[in-house]
Amino acid sequence: MIRKSESPRIIGKIMILAAVLSWCQTSLAAKASHPTKVAVAAKDQAVGEGRMSKNGVIVPLPKGYALWDLSRIYEVPVQKIIEANQGGRTNLNRLKVGMEILIPGATEVRPLVKRGKKAAPPCFKPAVTLYRVQNNESVEASLCYCSGKPNPEALDKVSRLARYLPKNKVKKLNPHLLEMLQAVADKYPKRRIEIISGYRMKKQPTSESRHTTGRAVDFRVEGVKYATLRDFVRKFKDAGVGYYPNSVFVHLDVRDPGKGAFWCDYSRPGEPALYAPMGLSKDQVALLRTERYGVPAETPSPAETLAGEKIALNLAVAGDRKDAVPTEPETRNGTIETKADVPVEPSPESAPSTETHAATAASATDGKPAQGAISSPGRAGAVNPS
pTM to 2 decimals? Predict the structure, then answer.
């Protein structure tokens, strides 16, 4: 039995308890309609984080976001988001950065851009004109963002331009190749980049040519001497550079970190590879050709030179020119690329005398030097690169 003297005290406690319960209900209702926000992000960001699940998309809550923001982005009512996350480990009453929130019914991961703040338009570097020599096809594209990262849309365009023409086969190029072409475009602005050869299909299962993996391109720049272009691209990190003084392009490929390489091939179109230190005179090359392969040291006429250029273009498309690296290529980036399966330089007497580029590609490999390849600069008597 409650004494009369205690009644006012008990009634007061009951009123306090009722007030607390009323406050809690009001607070929960307010949080449902206006979820708690964490500190505002310092700047806009479109992170696009999230992952698909069987019930929708799970989004780690970014800094400065609330359920209201996710509701707008995914076009799902806040109440449905709350209901989908009730009963689990997620406590929507205390939102924290990184908290995983299920967006029910969402069918794709969307970029997270806050309402009322338009994402800044992407910044691209100036558009570059690229031209495919064999079929007169050209594209104009911004190869990279201003940050230097490759533009995915441009990568698709350039990959198609550099496709394997005989079968019209497209393979996506390595993104780093696009970055290097962008560096060339920066160096020679408003100059057309002309593609001689890009992706090539394997002729043999054992082929190791970087062309077959979309990591190499044979190209030139309109109005720029091959030697000038060669000297510039040799500065690239983790790149393979092949210089062919008697052909119509410079070879450029993507290498593993610390594996940059350079080689010089004095062969003429249709001849066996003739690797030698860069800087040899015509007489020295002629003598080397005679000693190595028994080829008469004759200077081609202008008509023969023009015909040779056409042959070079055809061989490049067909994949008979190799991005070979002779034994002990030049030191670049502080490293030397060596391959255990590259044959040691044979003596001139043991070098083949009749094998052509086409025969080499058909019978040996696309990515290794032919027998008889002499070392590139870096060996005794060679001129080391700067």
Answer: 0.54
